[in-house]
């Protein structure tokens, strides 16, 4: 539990979305979804579904045997000459990386884009320790210059326009930057080239870690990943324990799913396989290789049989691209490194419900994400499970919903399970609405019902079907007639009784 | 043998869409289906469940089961969302080992969303309706992804005489209703709804059709707010028109 200790207020965040943002986000996500569809169509739907199922099954198998595969991984990485560290949380991971840097008197580090390092706030820790740390993925470089976090898992600067980036380069780098992608890219490339050559440490994450050979898999499109992991004499990888896979066969399946879902590529431009540091006989590669295996709440996630499947995620970002909520609010509204549906699931579990209890509700449960997810994470089920955790608590975390809300839910539950009370309610509402009614609409309701009417009017309550249907069938009509006779007799009886009592009193 | 339909009118259907419910009876009877209304039905419990109050969903769900468990024939609802909930979440509320579990399995299996019932059970696509207007269709999320009903409603609409079905841009994108979501995050719900309204108006159709009361409340409200002439209708009301 780190970084965002104050609770994430999703509703407040969405009210500060810059006006240009939804259009910029949608432009990018629409493009990605289009290219994704094209490459998925080539695979063919039947085969794609088979691949998804295989991806799901092998990821779940690994999670269920995480202890075994992590031990195997450690053994293999060590055998390949790497040094393995275990970090329970963000602070420990930072400490380990800082120690390694100190030992090697590192003053400059270059980084490959990594969500794990965003999650643990590694850049901040390194900069605070006086180590100049530079992001080298173009998007990540841009958000670092802007002093922001990534707004998308794979496209960190997705929320920025080329004009905004040009202004940023001008302000921060003091160069003349035209709002032209090629020119901007060239500026960054020149700057970064110097850094690659000067850096004493390269930091990366990994997309996968292959247990059987102790191999890291890093998927990038810019070549910066290769520069960071081969040029500096020291390579430190910080990777979540959920990224382990059993073998090369498994990676073969996942590498078919990942680039297609993420960027709509059959293969990304660079797929690097790194096994330990350089061997004496080879020229390239770092002299020393460290792997920091990060828990930071992941083993806690394993406790819940449903929510556990959050850890199947391969960080392709397609759930963000297809999410109507994400498309309108962008990544920063989610208040942490992860955004969109995966953010709603993962952040809630990593930071805990007291900090991130808003997030499981930041979804209309439309299920588009689950339909696209390449490893078939049951996203809707997990969000529902986490909503339950927020309001009722479970073995993983205590409840955080306010008591009055729980009282209202209990009352409502009672009213909805007593038929006569419910039916009475449907009729009573027709009268209760009268002061607010304009023709067939209720344009404005008092709090808390204004939460609906602030966005659009409510149709007027008009329940009359039961009465209508009772009159609709001959059997129903007879029943109603009997009821009316019964009621008539009862009323007559009561009236007669009243008359008798009344006349007696008079005497 | 006459086919029987037990009407599961749903709480949103009952409180906001009475004419549509009558249309449902009208269409089913026209197709020779005998309609029955099981008394004592309230709400399936989904609003509680989806808000996180899953323990509070049990009581309404028990009431639903008490009412529908003892009926026979098909159970038909004008909502994919409620049917999705009964079919896919009731077993969570009444897990294996509880008294209700077997009743749930039996009852949920004969519970159908309206278009699913017509097209896949009755095998009817032409219900003999006539609707001389341009119509566009919004796919409701739970019918679409929860029940896998992608084409059924459109197949029924295409068979309506003199009806012109106009494709809707982003047909399968959520309208922003999302049950509790619409009141927890009204600002986000609103921008999603407005995007839907923009696409509906751009389609040029006179009517927008959906199959779920929730979406319809949201879309109709949005259209009314924007003073649009486009009318939001339930699929059933179009099929009832002659």
Structural features, described:
The complex is a heterodimer of chains A (507) and B (242). Chain A is an alpha/beta fold. Chain A has helices at 10-14, 21-43, 45-64, 66-79, 90-103, 115-119, 122-128, 138-145, 162-173, 181-198, 224-230, 248-262, 298-301, 318-322, 324-329, 340-351, 353-356, 368-372, 379-392, 403-415, 419-432, 450-453, 465-472, 474-506, and strands at residues 83-87, 108-111, 132-135, 201-204, 208-210, 215-220, 234-240, 244-245, 270-274, 288-294, 441-442, 458-459. The longest helix of chain A is centred in the C-terminal third of the chain and has 33 residues, at 474-506. In chain A, 46% of the residues are buried. Helices cover 53% and strands 10% of the residues of chain A. Chain A folds into 4 domains: 67-296, NagB/RpiA/CoA transferase-like (Rossmann fold); 307-392, Fumarate Reductase Iron-sulfur Protein, Chain B, domain 2 (Orthogonal Bundle); 403-459, no CATH class; 469-506. In chain A, strand 5 (208-210) and strand 6 (215-220) form a beta hairpin. Chain B has 242 residues and is α/β, with parallel strands linked by helices. Chain B has 2 domains: 3-121; 134-240, Rossmann fold. Helix content of chain B is 50%, strand content 13%. Chain B is built from 13 helices and 8 strands. A 4-stranded parallel beta sheet of chain B has the order 2-1-3-4, sandwiched between helices. The model of chain B has no long low-confidence stretch (mean pLDDT 97). The chains are: A alpha/beta (507), B alpha/beta (242).
Write the layout of secondary structure elements.
The complex is a heterodimer of chains A (507) and B (242).
Chain A lengths: L9 H5 L6 H23 L1 H20 L1 H14 L3 E5 L2 H14 L4 E4 L3 H5 L2 H7 L3 E4 L2 H8 L16 H12 L7 H18 L2 E4 L3 E3 L4 E6 L3 H7 L3 E7 L3 E2 L2 H15 L7 E5 L13 E7 L3 H4 L16 H5 L1 H6 L10 H12 L1 H4 L11 H5 L6 H14 L10 H13 L3 H14 L8 E2 L7 H4 L4 E2 L5 H8 L1 H33 L1
Parallel strand pairs in A: 1-10, 2-3, 2-4, 4-7, 5-8, 7-10
Antiparallel strand pairs in A: 5-6, 6-9, 11-12
Chain B lengths: L2 E5 L3 H6 L1 H13 L2 E4 L9 H5 L7 H12 L4 E4 L2 H14 L7 H9 L1 E3 H8 L12 E4 L3 H6 L5 H7 L5 E3 L14 H4 L1 H18 L3 E4 L2 H13 L5 E4 H6 L2
Parallel strand pairs in B: 1-2, 1-3, 3-4, 5-6, 5-7, 7-8
Helix pairs in contact in B: 5-6, 7-9, 11-12
